[in-house]
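ingest -> validate -> predict -> emit
validate: passed (alphabet ok, no gaps, 185 aa)
predict: started
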Amino acid sequence: MPGPMRGRPSSANAILDAALDLLDGGGTISIESVANAAGLTKPGLMYHFGTKAALMDALVDHVVDSLESELLRRLPVPADRTTAAQRHRAYLEWALDCPHRRCELVMFSDPRLMSRLTQRWTERFDSWVALPADMSPLQRARLHSARLIADGSWLADTTETFPLSGADRQQVLELGLALLEEDAS
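emit:
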């Protein structure tokens, strides 16, 4: 859940979107920089997010909420009835099929809050990548491998560091999907 917010949710979302645009442009997040980007005064922003930590927590939640919306669209059944392989497939397809933005790495954007933000990200995203305890070691290895392919592609795209070409991207996606198909057998 986002940090303490007051006021209209649409105002809070507009602030969060302005902050993400700021990150995409290479800016740093502070109460003042986000207030300026959102066209607000510092007290106006603090009405919604009383501290920088609350703002950053809300940014992580905002990004995860958006990611989850994309992942849910890719599931063949309602989320509460999916298998680990189906959730990993949705993540793999999202990572290799969708355009990505630098701001998706919001959890790394403030060195002083990185531990807090990565913990929040992990807690929010865990249900998508968690594996059942009774899964065989080979099945676990296949799903971990598919997740690591997704993680690597996503990181390469968001940082623009060695992103895959179109043909390579398709081949890597097919390889990852094959790992997940093997899991089903």
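Residues 9-184 form a domain with the Tetracycline Repressor; domain 2 fold (CATH 1.10.357.10).
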